[in-house]
Amino acid sequence: MIITIDGPAGSGKSTVARRLAAILEISYLDTGSMYRAIAYTALRRAIDLHDEQALLALTRSMDLDLDCGPTHTRVRVNGHDVSEAIRSMGVSAATAPVAKHPGIRAILVAHQRRIGERLGSLVTEGRDQGSVVFPHADVKIVLDASLAKRAERRCQELAADGENADLSAVTDDLASRDRTDAKQWKPLLASKTTTVIDTTRLTIAEVVDRLASIVGERSAR
User: Domains in the chain: how many in total?
Assistant: First the structure.
């Protein structure tokens, strides 16, 4: 079974996807970590984030390996674990321009499909999982939330990682990413096979329970 969870940054996709995968005892794929890994490596090598050809060359030369377990996606670049390093605000800001490049997206979409074929069953989250990567997924979910709530959540995540974050700066960053990312997941809203959940006033547990119920209903058919 393939379950896709798409939506804007801060809507709760990563946390919910991990917990749902753990309940179902299947793998969890965090596709955003792949774009972050490229952005992180580009920053370290001082590569222009707007130079698609340079980024393509980097991506093709990178050994990008993902270990997808039921509760985690560990990311290694050229044998080095960068799972924590790619979560900084600096990398977050650099990820959006990297993800804009069609050539980068094409490489990573192909990579994600290979992962899906290898794993067979998984919960995968991102921006275009149900619309582009796995259009025939068994269950398609879109999570959304207000910008204010998403910014609040992002600040809490950064604080938990020991990084100070200004709420205003985080809000501006998310708003900027929304302008780019929305075109990836909004087409799913028109699909009758997609379930949309606004998480603004829901706890993580409530969202996970709802998704587990949806998956259970689909599995029983």
Answer: 1
From the list 56, 104, 95, the residue with the least C-alpha distance to 180 is 95
Residue 115 lies in domain: 2-208
Overall pTM > 0.70? yes
Pull the structure tokens for residue 30.
């965090």
The one-letter amino acid code at 76 reads: R
Is residue 42, in this structure, part of any structural domain at all? yes
In a domain, 117, yes or no: yes
Query: What tokens were used for 105?
Result: 């997206």
Round to whole Å and give the CA distance between 137 and 149: 28
pLDDT tens digits, 44-88 = 999 999 999 999 999 999 999 999 988 888 999 999 999 999 988
Instruction: Tell me which residue has tokens 């606004």.
Output: 198
Q: Is residue 214 part of a domain?
A: no
Burial (0-12, 13-18, 19+ Cβ within 10 Å), 191: middle
Q: Is residue 175 part of a domain?
A: yes
Q: Which two tokens stand for residue 109?
A: 């979409």
Nearest to 14 by CA among 157, 219, 118: 157
